[in-house]
Structure formats: C-alpha cells, structure tokens
C-alpha cells in the first residue's frame, strides 16, 4: 500500500506539532545541508514558543500517516517597493528517508496558498549554492534568482552575526 502524505499548517499550541517542529528542525540542523550541528538546548526549548509569539511566523508540516516527515518555517516580511507583505521561506526540511517523494513541493504549495491568503506579493528564500537538489526543486516550483537590473547583477544573501 502506498504511503499517504498530508500537508497542513502547524498549530504551535498543539504539543504533537510542537514536538514535530523541534524534531524536524533538529534533524535538518544536524544534516550537512543545515550546518551539521544539532539545535542547542536553548533553541529546542524556546523555538516553538518564540515562533508562536510572532504573529508573522507560520510553519507547515508534512505527514506520512501520523509521522511528521517534513517542515517549512516561514516569516512574513514587507516589500517596500510593492508596499505589500512578502513571505520568507526560512527552513525547508524533509527527513532523509522521505526525500525525493514530492513532499517539499507539496509543503511549498501550502506555503504559497497561505502567502496568497495573507496578500503577499512574493515568496523569498535562501539556498546554498552547492545544494543542487534544492535548487532544482525551487526552480521547478517557480523560484528564480533576484535582480532588478541585469547590469547591476544578481542579489546575494549576506549575514552579520550580532553577539
């Protein structure tokens, strides 16, 4: 019998969803694509309460039967040029055992549905240049590099840690 996958918005107040979010993000963080380090105890304890305290955050979970196998965390931002909300896809995680089955694509479809419901003008995300499977997925579902004027080049994602 084929596995039955379902995708839905996570409920931060539901203990099973909270456990799934932490477990899936920890698995992703522990993977080389996520940095290869498990979540700190601080992050494990505070992640879901902190997400829940932010009205512009939402998460999507994927299930194989009753088992959570995929997670997308999103944070709403704002496009000043369009004067509309945007949704940043912050984490996309699928358990290694379930990759290549269309689960991430289904979760991103749900993210897009929620973003449209919120009146967002676009989705954004970051991806490591060496993560070819993720790049193929993102391009397949409509993501592309960002630029305003080709003469100015493509946008790059930068960070500065604040201690």
TrEMBL record:
Assigned keywords, A-Z: Acyltransferase, Transferase
Alphabetical list of Gene3D superfamilies matching this protein: 3.40.630.30
Residues annotated as transmembrane: none
GO molecular function, one term: acyltransferase activity, transferring groups other than amino-acyl groups
Alphabetical list of InterPro entries matching this protein: Acyl_CoA_acyltransferase, Bact_Acetyltransf, GNAT_dom
Keyword Transferase attributed: yes
Ranges of residues in domain N-acetyltransferase: 8-163
Domain of life of the native organism: Bacteria
Pfam families xref list: Acetyltransf_1
Matches recorded under PANTHER family: AMINOALKYLPHOSPHONATE N-ACETYLTRANSFERASE-RELATED, AMINOALKYLPHOSPHONATE N-ACETYLTRANSFERASE-RELATED-RELATED
Protein name as it appears in the record: N-acetyltransferase GCN5
């Amino acid at each position: 019998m084929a596995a039955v996958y379902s995708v839905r918005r996570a409920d931060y107040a539901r203990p099973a969803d909270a456990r799934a979010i932490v477990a899936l993000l920890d698995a992703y963080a522990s993977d080389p694509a996520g940095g290869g380090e498990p979540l700190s105890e601080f992050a494990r304890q505070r992640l879901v309460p902190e997400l829940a305290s932010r009205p512009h955050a939402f998460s999507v979970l994927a299930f194989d039967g009753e088992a959570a196998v995929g997670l997308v965390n999103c944070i709403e931002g704002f496009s000043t040029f369009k004067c509309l909300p945007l949704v940043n896809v912050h984490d996309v995680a699928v358990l290694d055992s379930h990759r290549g089955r269309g689960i991430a694509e289904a979760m991103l479809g749900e993210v897009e549905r929620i973003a449209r419901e919120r009146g967002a003008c676009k989705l954004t995300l970051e991806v490591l240049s060496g993560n070819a499977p993720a790049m193929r997925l993102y391009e397949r579902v409509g993501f592309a590099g960002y630029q305003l004027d080709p003469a100015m080049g493509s946008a790059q994602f930068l960070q500065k840690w604040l201690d």
